[in-house]
Each structure stands twice: as C-alpha cells, then as structure tokens.
Design a protein that fits this description.
The protein is of the alpha/beta class and 247 residues long. Helices cover 36% and strands 23% of the residues. It has helices at 9-18, 38-47, 56-62, 83-91, 108-120, 138-144, 159-170, 207-211, 230-246, and strands at residues 3-7, 23-29, 51-54, 71-76, 81-82, 98-103, 125-129, 153-156, 173-177, 183-184, 194-199, 215-218. The strands form two sheets. An eight-stranded parallel β-sheet has the order 5-8-7-6-11-9-12-10. A four-stranded mixed β-sheet has the order 1-4-2-3. The N and C termini lie far apart (43 Å).
Length: 247
C-alpha cells in the first residue's frame, strides 16, 4: 500500500489520536529538546507503534526539508476521495451540508489552511479540481494541523459538472464569491445545504464555474486592500455559516 509522510506535532498527534491504524513508524529527533513531544511519545509507546530515534539530517531528508518540529510519522496513505463517492456521501449526511469548493487554488499551504478552517467551523468536505489545483501533499497535511484525518478532500474531473450534480441530485444551493456580486455574504442564507466556491486569489472563479453558481456573494472590504487570501476568505464565510446555524 502507498505511504505518505506526516510532519509536525499537530499532524502526528492527530493521526495517532484519530487514525492510529495507518501509522507504520514514528521517527523522532535523537537529540530532542521539545517537551511537547513527550505526550506524543507516550501515546506511541501505548499503541506499540515502532519508534526510531534518528539524526536531524535524517528527519530533514524524510520531510523533504519541510519544518518537522522533530517528529515524523510514516503512514499508509489516506484513500483518495473520488467524485463517484461524493454524491453518496453528501446524501448520507444527517445535517445540512457545508461544502467548500476551491477553484484553481495551487498553493498547498492555502489548501491546508482551508481544510483546517472548514473543519473548525463544522463543515463537511472540500472539493478540488483534478487540474489547476495543488494535490494533497505533506505540506497540506502539516498546515491542516490534523484536520485531514476527519475532513475529506474530493478530487473531481469537471468542477462545473460536479456543481450541477450537487444542485440537482443533492439539493445544494451553490454560492460563489466575486468582487462584482451585488449581495454580500451577510445577506445570504447559510442555514440551507450549500456548497461555497472560492477562486484563486487574484484570478477568482473561472467563467464556467461562475455560471454554475446559484448566487454570487462578495465579502465587504472597507480598507485599502481589495482582496483576501483564499483561506482567510474561507474563514470569514464559514464562520458566518456557523453563526447562522448555531449561535
């Protein structure tokens, strides 16, 4: 089975807590000084997962020179979530869906931050296109701080077709974000099952994707800048949905 490397305290702690069965081995800095590693290593011992103390250079190579905070997990790769599963999974939800759709987001840090944000707001899944998007990488896992273990990311071939299927087969309302929209997000009804589409910073959503949205929304901007980082925009929108639904 294919494997992947998870780096950093949050990502490793999350997989040990939520999905320990996929952990094959833990690598830790032989000269560790970080006390935050102690409870993780106790958990590793209790789970009887192989633990190997290695040099900092070895950790750097395993992590492909990403910041690893002195600990790495070698794991079975999470199963890829395909579009064939998406509609079934959405229909099986026992609450109004909250999906985040990212059109053309190519920075893995942004994808990871969006996964973390959606998870913290109680959202259900993220959808990305197969092309013109970053895949799920170790950087995504680390930036998501463990949220990848419980927030699925679906990769689809045709984003416009997927939006149409979500509307017609699952009854979702499709929101899109645009600085040209007449309504702002505080005028939207996020209590309904919905998918929210965010485009890449600067470029926005593609034309065909925009045409498949039921309603376009803008985020009010009162300062000198005219755009937000996509993960920040996701946070603003998802927490407005959380406010409407639960607060």
């Amino acid at each position: 089975m294919a494997e992947e490397i998870l780096t950093g305290i949050h990502a490793v702690a999350a997989v040990l807590s939520l999905n320990p069965g996929r952990v094959r081995q833990i690598y830790v800095n032989e000269k560790r000084r970080n006390k935050r590693l102690d409870p993780i290593l106790q958990s590793v011992k209790g789970l009887r997962i192989p633990l190997k103390e290695v040099s900092r250079d070895k950790l750097d190579r395993l992590a492909d020179n990403q910041n690893h905070q002195g600990i790495i997990a070698r794991c079975e790769m999470l199963p890829a979530r395909a579009e064939a599963e998406l509609l079934w999974d959405v229909k099986a939800l026992d609450h109004p869906a909250m999906l985040l759709v990212l059109d053309g987001v190519q920075d893995p840090h942004n994808l990871g931050a969006c996964v973390r944000t959606l998870n913290s707001a109680g959202g259900d899944a993220i959808i990305i296109p197969k092309d013109r998007s970053t895949p799920v990488t170790p950087v995504v896992h680390k930036t998501a701080s463990g949220a990848m273990e419980t927030t699925p990311v679906y990769t689809v071939t045709n984003l416009s077709r997927t939006l149409q299927q979500l509307r017609e087969d699952c009854g979702l309302w499709i929101f899109g974000t645009s600085d040209k929209a007449e309504n702002n997000l505080y005028q939207a009804d996020f209590t309904v099952p919905f998918a929210l589409v965010l485009g890449a910073e600067g470029k926005g959503m593609r034309r065909l994707v925009t045409e498949h949205c039921d309603e376009l929304l803008t985020i009010p901007m009162k300062g000198s800048v005219n755009s937000l980082n996509v993960s920040v925009a996701a946070g603003v929108c998802c927490y407005e949905a959380l406010r409407q639904r639960h607060l």
